[in-house]
UniProtKB/TrEMBL annotation:
<dbReference type="InterPro" id="IPR007219">
    <property type="entry name" value="XnlR_reg_dom"/>
</dbReference>
<dbReference type="GO" id="GO:0008270">
    <property type="term" value="F:zinc ion binding"/>
</dbReference>
<keyword id="KW-0539">Nucleus</keyword>
<dbReference type="InterPro" id="IPR050987">
    <property type="entry name" value="AtrR-like"/>
</dbReference>
<dbReference type="GO" id="GO:0003677">
    <property type="term" value="F:DNA binding"/>
</dbReference>
<protein>
    <recommendedName>
        <fullName>Xylanolytic transcriptional activator regulatory domain-containing protein</fullName>
    </recommendedName>
</protein>
<dbReference type="GO" id="GO:0003700">
    <property type="term" value="F:DNA-binding transcription factor activity"/>
</dbReference>
<feature type="domain" description="Xylanolytic transcriptional activator regulatory">
    <location>
        <begin position="5"/>
        <end position="110"/>
    </location>
</feature>
<dbReference type="GO" id="GO:0006351">
    <property type="term" value="P:DNA-templated transcription"/>
</dbReference>
<dbReference type="Pfam" id="PF04082">
    <property type="entry name" value="Fungal_trans"/>
</dbReference>
Amino acid sequence: MGVGEIELRKRLWWWVYVFDRFTSILHRLPPLINDADVDNDLPIDCLNDLEATELSHPLPGERTAVFVFLQYVSLGKKLSRILDLLYTMTQRRDGARKIMDLERDLRVWNQNLKADGIPFDIGITGLQHSSDGANHSYESTNIWLQLMANITMTLIHRPGLSFDDTTSEFGNCLKACLDSGSAILFLVETSNIPKWLRNLSLVGPATIFQSALVYIYSQFKYHTFKPDGFPALDTSMGMVSKGISILTIESTRATRAQGGFYSKSLSEIIKTLQTLLSSLPAMQGLVETPHVMNDGVSVSNAPDTFDEQNWGGNALDSLNYMTASDWMGDPSGPFMGFMDLGES
């Protein structure tokens, strides 16, 4: 077996591994691959094709598509550790320390990426371009890595929202979810990531909904006292509106890809966000209640919008089962850029 085929087999194995972790997160199922059984070597960062008989390494400072794939695998392994330590029924003690350790590990990965020419910071809103911006294929994957890193940070801190809300640990977790949520919404709205690349991430309607929802949650949580660094009301309303806009645009794609069922579910979720959004000024005492929305729905008591009957339970359940592929459509395209290795 030649070295080219060996490297291809490594890439395929690790793609299956990461896909297993993504499936576990998206559908709330246990992983099929046990980390204790994994002893496969990682792919080598090289330029080989299937017929290669010897390894061809990149020049110093040169970055290949395999380098990006290795970051993808690294995030997959971090997600696996997050599932094991935080999303478990048997090892739930010492959660604050686990969250701190997982965040530190992710930020070290982020710093190493910056040293390799992909300069972005997790939780920072805005398109942060790499030093190789002339290559559109790599630029797309760099933006996608920003998106994936912020999703990973959110998954680390979301369990911390169950902490006592008077503790600093709760505040730190909520702040991290807000920062990464805003980055996710901005990246999805403003970046032109190809559909095939978005299909390789955890970005789906549920991610957009949750990124917007955390801003509503923070306003209800801190409507009488707002700690330093937390968003003001107008900022939160702007982020929720951004989430509504993204879901509204993408609902047409869901209709084409999956039919009316998912489109109806998205419509219910959009209406839920609109109802909650309209309740924020009333909750802050900025308008008299009841506050009437544009579609004529009256909100007589802001906290009541969190009643289960107002949440469209069936729509939320459907939303959780809509994967990235469900709403982004055709996943065809180059696999992590491997088909584009010869392009400049």
